[in-house]
Amino acid sequence: MSIVTVALVSFVVVAGITLLAGIALMRFWPVLQRERFGTAVAAAAGGASILRWSDEPRAGWERTIEQIGRAVGGSEEQAPTKYRRRLIWAGYFEPRAVLLFLGAKVALGIGLGSLYFVYSLVALRAVPFPRLVAVSLILSVIGFFLPDFWLHNRIKVRRREIIHALPDVLDLLMVCVEAGLGFDAAVARIAEQPERPSPLHVELRRMHLEVRAGRPRQEALRALADRTGVEEMRSIVGAFIQTEKLGTPLGKTLRVHADAARVQRRHRAEEQAHLAPLKMLFPTVFFLMPAFFLVTLAPSLLGLLKLLKALSF
Question: pLDDT for 73-84, tens place per residue?
């Protein structure tokens, strides 16, 4: 094999591994979500209220998944509460979302195991039956827990976006309240302000619509904290409710919590900055060290192979 062939093969292998790793990071790592690199696009509201949703599935595969979920979990009221709470934390409020989630778990679990089993029986006939059953069971378990991994990642991304947007939202609330607006008017003003709203802006808009629909403000605030699943929101909501009960100025409370949220955000940024060199060590070793070894050792190895070939004669 010539030096040019070795170099081309090495380049193709390294480029393929880098491309696959980049695609995997863009798809599964919350820090590198694809939407963060795109341009800001206004959300298409379409005039529909976020407090309403359609009861009919939007595609044929959704109907199939929902039927599987109903066969496993029953109706929306009988579905497990822990999945409903986690789906709400992820931003899915429809009652049938838990049925779709359960149906996806069962469908992926059965589908991966069955596909490998059928493929092995048709194409790989020499595979021993015990190993075939074991691999099929392992794939079924992996497929069953894949939706849980996706949901955990979705919750983590949404909580991070809420925590990052919290100091700015509190600052705007403080400015609006100190300028003379009421709390409800300030929330409505802030919730409709950005072109590309964060999950916190969406939750504030939902809370404002609930209050306009007749829900008590304290109950709507507690529901806001429960939907986000963020401890900072629980403490801030508790302070809002306590301020309303005692009649203390809301602007001072907002100023204190805005300053605290800003300091916490700076501390999180400093912590991530200190961890960045350690995180960069692993991709450096994984991607660059093979290339370094290839560049430095390939000529010596080729010379050694030529010497051994000459000595063999």
Answer: 666 565 667 888
